Amino acid sequence: MSPSLIDNYPTAGPAPTSSTSTKDTRPTIADQLIPTVRPSPPRYFGNMNTSLVESKFLTHPGDLGIVAVGFSGGQGKPGVDAAPAALFESGLLDQLRHDLGYNLHGHDAVHEYADLVPQHDPPHRGMKNPRAVSAVTKRIAEQVYAHAREGRLVLTLGGDHSIAIGTIAGTAKAVRERFAGRKEIAVIWVDAHADINTPETSGSGNVHGMPVSFLTGLARDSDEQFFGWIGDEHRISVSKIVYIGLRDVDPGEKRILRENGIKAFSMFDIDRVPIRSYGIGRVMELALAHIGADTPIHLSFDVDALDPMWAPSTGTPVRGGLTLREGDFICEMVHQTGSLVAVDLVEVNPRLGPAVDAAHDTVRAGCSLVRCALGETLL
Questions:
Q1: Helix pair 130-148, 164-178: axis angle to 10 deg
Q2: N or C: which end of the chain has fewer CB within 10 A?
């Protein structure tokens, strides 16, 4: 892993001039989107926070709320519930506390939510385990909200991607309350899959493929035990979600994306030939420009966005994905905006993988993504 240097970003005041300099100093989109690093100290660093980026929307940016979700009910492969413990055992919390200088809150245990999982949970509208997923995500929303309303950055470690119903709902509600309705969150969804199926368009019935449809209101149910607890205060606008890294999208999802004008960047956009190149840097500029510079951001990162070369231990791997460096860069760019308010890392499954070291490599990749999102720098 090689995070970007702070010196790569613009500083306050005019740049030094030189008669021999050939550097192009014209502002780019990234220059306009990424907060200026001023010579005076930012508002808050935490104990020894290495980030030099001033937070726009957090009153306590040095405080990090941790929600560890040991839940796998949104899909059918066991093991993803073991991811938070594996991330803890890898030393992630010590890295966040000692290397990045965060004050950690709520990080003592992995939540398994056994009290919320019914013994009998038949399908509803084709959804598998609907009562369990609904009840667990409601609890997660409450946990994330409790941190976010205090003005803390929130990190949720999953678990499968169905948990984003809860994480994003909790963030959305807290931001609306903290800013008296004047702000709504945007979501950057980094994933090989769109996860925007409705119960009716899903071929599998797995709810981890449906969270965005419930969060945007494209899928609804009046019964609280089937996600009826999601209210307007929990929802996000289709105009404030951006996908990055898509490469395995169901036919029904493609129709939903087109009909709703949802901004999405596939691997094709990232990999365009040089003469019409986007590349990950240009894609991030366009993604952030779409969101706007004055919008709180919730970053939801599915590790299967990475190519299986980098993250083999995940439930639905798809070849042809992001490199780890590209994934780290996405996280670094989002951090550099100063707009980040919440991060999810999901779908690490330590029990899956083609080789002995697969789980270790995937956990290590997940830790790298988290550290980059939370401000790790080389200098």
A1: 30
A2: C
CA–CA gap between residue 308 and residue 348 (Å, rounded): 12
E strand spans, 151-196: 153-157, 186-190
Cα distances (Å, whole numbers) of residue 151 to 58, 64, 98, 113, 272: 5, 10, 21, 25, 39
Q: Report the C-alpha gap between 165 and 153 in whole angstroms.
A: 18
Q: 310: burial class by Cβ within 10 Å (0-12, 13-18, 19+)?
A: buried
In eight-state DSSP terms, residue 3 is P
Residue 279, judged by CB atoms within 10 A of its CB (0-12, 13-18, 19+), counts as: middle
For 27-83, the DSSP string reads PPHHHHHSPPB-SSPPS--TTT----PPPSS-S-TTEEEEEEB---TTSS-TTGGGH
Beta-carbon count within 10 A of 306 CB: 28
Distance between CA 288 and CA 62 in Å, rounded? 24
Q: Which of 352, 326, 334, 226 is nearest to 288 (CA)?
A: 334
Strands 153-157 and 340-346: parallel
Active site residues: 161, 191, 193, 195, 208, 302, 304, 347
How far is it, in rounded angstroms, from Cα 120 to Cα 171?
31
Tens-digit pLDDT profile for residues 106-132: 987 999 999 999 999 999 999 999 999
Helix, strand, or coil (residue 294): coil
Determine the Cα–Cα distance for residues 289 and 261; give it in Å rounded to an integer.
Answer: 16
The first and second tokens of residue 254, run together, are 């493609």
* Distance of alpha carbon 136 from alpha carbon 142, whole angstroms: 10
pLDDT digits (tens, 9 = 90+) for 163-213: 999 999 999 999 999 999 999 999 999 999 999 999 999 999 999 999 999
Burial of residue 122 (CB within 10 Å: 0-12, 13-18, 19+) is exposed
Mean pLDDT of the chain: 88
Instruction: Tell me the sheet residues that pair with 356.
Output: none
Give whole-number Cα distances, 50 to 7, 87, 127, 195, in Å: 14, 21, 44, 34
